[in-house]
Amino acid sequence: MRAAELDPDLAAAIDEIESLGPPAWSDLSVAAARRLEDELFAGPPEPPVADVRDLAFDGPHGEVPVRTYRPEGIVEDSAEPRVLVHFHGGGWTLGTLDSVDGICRELAVRADAVVVSVDYRLAPEHPFPVAVDEAAAAVAWVAETAGALGVDADRIGVSGTSAGGALAVATALRAREFDSLPTPAGQLLLYPIAGRDFETDSYRENADGPLLTRGDMRWFYDRYLRSPVDAANPYAVPLRATDLGDLPPATVVTAGFDPLRDDGVALAERFEDEGTSVEHRHYPAMAHGFCSLADRVDAAEAALEAVARDARSYL
């Protein structure tokens, strides 16, 4: 499944990032990695949306900040719009509302949806299952306050990149198991972390990146999990679930040059085999995180458009 070569536009973007000389996440302290992540990925507020608001809700571990994005065209619309609850990537250790601002704006505009970006607590200060608890609580809060937020409580989807994709799946699994939680209407999973086998073909082929390495993933998991016991928990590692059927319809985006590629492929295959409707969108010449470069990479632009179409279909 490995691509013959990296997409030229993406390669140019990666060269520009690497010319800045950033070390691997796994070579840094947590504090230094967070500073670097903010420097690399916090960009200008593009594309424009009609309204952005910083709010918060009372979660199971304290107050959880969120940021809402409302695109043009639905501000004055009497119909209640669809909503995506979005969980950022960063290996459960990095990431802020600012660093994921761009892709949240893209999803809002392209999917014609209100996006609620969740600033869940990070490891290692707050290891598993804190982020999962707060992700599920965020969906419940959106459903409970849909009227005040001006969204449709019956059209709530979950989306996430990388570690955020794992949180989206965990939220869907929890909703299947607990009637007290609202069931998302769809899952949009962009290059999700789904397994913990560091010897898959994609981990070996892409051990040194680009943009994400096998060492990075070991580093992230070491900070997220409290002990090896957590690695058997499907809320932490979705592929450990005994059954991935009867979940909301899902889109799984994978990239050929991503260490997580085979995790995503396995997740999509299990969804299909076990009874969850799935659209697997594979981009063989792309690398991890490529959708954040839609302004520079045509394939990333096409991927976001496809994901947005799926969102409109599910919600």
The number of E-state strands comes to: 8
Shape by Cα distribution: globular
Q: How can the largest sheet be summarized?
A: 8 strands, mixed
Neighbour order of strands in the largest sheet: 1-2-4-3-5-6-7-8
**For the terminal residues, how far apart are their CA atoms?**
31 Å
Rg from alpha-carbon coordinates: 18 Å
- N-to-C order of helices and strands: HHEEEHEHHEHEHHEHEH
The fraction of residues in strands falls at 15-25%
Oligomer: single chain
What number is the mean pLDDT?
94
Helix content: 25-40%
Query: How many helix segments?
Result: 10
- Low-confidence runs: none
Class derived from helix and strand content: alpha/beta
What does this structure look like?
With 315 residues, the protein is α/β, with parallel strands linked by helices. The chain has 10 helices and 8 strands. Strands 1-2-4-3-5-6-7-8 form an 8-stranded mixed beta sheet, with helices on both faces. Helix 3 (101-111) crosses helix 10 (298-314). The model has no long low-confidence stretch (mean pLDDT 94).
